[in-house]
Structure to design on (257 residues):
């Protein structure tokens, strides 16, 4: 059953619980992927002559945890810049803090590889986090869609139902949860196959987020905030895509020689 809206204390507790579970799941996912990368790199480095520098899992974990802490604390400031009141754990602003922080921190530990390569290790954790947060949004009754002929029907005295006279609303939260879960699964599959996955999440998140702003019942200020941040995510995705293509060309030219 969908939520009663922002004024229901029970659904607020569920929302906050899923929000925290999403953060915990993202951290666990990042740790598991870090361990996988450590074991993979250990095998690869052992075959090099001379042996390559070992991948330090604990340094990577420290960078991830520090970036997550900065993401948690700094999100409110990112949101304030745009004059929008959002939850301090707002995921959109948080990612814009997490990515540059992680890249900056990992530059101090070059033996673990290029910062973008290290970011790829934890990237699947981000869509997993958002997928769980959006389930919380559904239970809380926020971030709901615009009226449509067939959609989600909220409880009679909920905020969405009162605002739109009980009309069915576009299922924005379940749709974004589905998109992010598929993004997470795709990124994990490609990562375990040794493929580059760096631009997948920023591009998927930016494109899907932009599209969903047209069917989400936010006020003008909130829509402006999200469209700016989704545009920044798209820009990050395009930059990452360029870096992956450039690295691929370098690797191919090196193999030809």
């Amino acid at each position: 059953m969908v939520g009663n809206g922002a004024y229901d204390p029970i659904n607020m507790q569920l929302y906050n619980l899923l929000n925290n579970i999403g953060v915990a799941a993202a951290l666990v996912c990042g740790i598991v992927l870090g361990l996988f990368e450590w074991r993979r790199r250990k095998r690869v480095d052992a075959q090099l002559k001379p042996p390559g520098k070992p991948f330090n899992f604990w340094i990577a974990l420290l960078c991830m945890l520090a970036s997550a802490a900065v993401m948690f604390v700094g999100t409110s400031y990112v949101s304030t810049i745009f004059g929008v009141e959002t939850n301090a754990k707002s995921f959109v602003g948080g990612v814009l803090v997490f990515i540059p922080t992680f890249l900056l921190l990992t530059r101090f530990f070059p033996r673990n590889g290029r910062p973008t390569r290290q970011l790829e290790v934890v990237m699947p954790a981000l869509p997993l986090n958002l997928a769980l947060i959006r389930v919380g949004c559904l239970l809380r009754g926020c971030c709901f869609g615009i009226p449509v002929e067939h959609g989600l029907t909220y409880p009679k005295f909920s905020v969405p139902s009162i605002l739109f006279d009980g009309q069915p609303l576009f299922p924005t939260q379940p749709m974004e949860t589905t998109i992010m879960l598929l993004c997470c699964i795709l990124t994990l599959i490609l990562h375990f196959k040794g493929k580059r996955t760096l631009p997948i999440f920023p591009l998927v998140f930016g494109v899907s987020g932009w599209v969903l702003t047209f069917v989400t019942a936010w006020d003008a200020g909130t829509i402006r905030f999200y469209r700016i941040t989704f545009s920044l995510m798209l820009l990050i995705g395009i930059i990452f895509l360029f870096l992956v293509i450039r690295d691929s060309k370098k690797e191919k030219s090196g193999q030809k020689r």
Observations:
- The two ends are 61 Å apart (CA to CA).
- Strands lie at 147-152.
